[in-house]
Amino acid sequence: MEEPLADWVRAHHVCWDVAPSRRPGEGGHPGFELTLLALCGSRRGIDPARPECHATYERLAAIAARALPAAVPHHVEPYDAAVHLRPESAFAPEVELIVEAFPDPADAQGVRASMEEALRRLGVKAKTWSEAAAAR
Question: How far apart (Å, rounded) are the C-alpha atoms in residues 62 and 52?
Fold first, then answer.
């Protein structure tokens, strides 16, 4: 049986960040990049090619799909088979998923706000995980 998504989010300390897209979408409209990060494995001997890390990436993709409205044009970057180390997570190995989204400029602010709210409802934390924030 698959563990509930919110429990998985908590166990893997899933975090998100949003930044302007590095490239325009079709029609030249600017978009944004949603980055999701989740813990993968222990601090020692982590191999990003292990099925556990790819499964983490797939779970992040499912979270992104639930948060981003289906009608919004977007592109999911392929799994980079790497762990990412950030000072915000005390250099714990994380898997990263990046989604470039290109909503209609008139709807961009509302799309971003609804996406961020959907992530919060799933328990995903903005930028970094903290136990204090997780308790809220």
Answer: 15
Sign of torsion, CA 52 132 117 80?
negative
In the structure, what pLDDT confidence band is assigned to residue 120 with cuts at 50, 70 and 90? very high
One-character DSSP codes across 65-118: HHHS-TTS-EEEPPP-S--B--GGGTT--EEEEEEEE---TTTHHHHHHHHHHH
Q: Which residues does 109 contact at the CB level (< 8 Å), separation at least 6?
A: none
Q: Which residues pair with 20 in a beta bridge?
A: 32
Coarse DSSP helix, strand, coil percentages of the chain, rounded to the nearest 5 percent: 35, 20, 45
The pLDDT tens digits for 28-66 are 778 999 999 999 866 556 778 888 889 999 999 999 999
Q: Does position 133 have pLDDT exceeding 80, yes or no? A: no
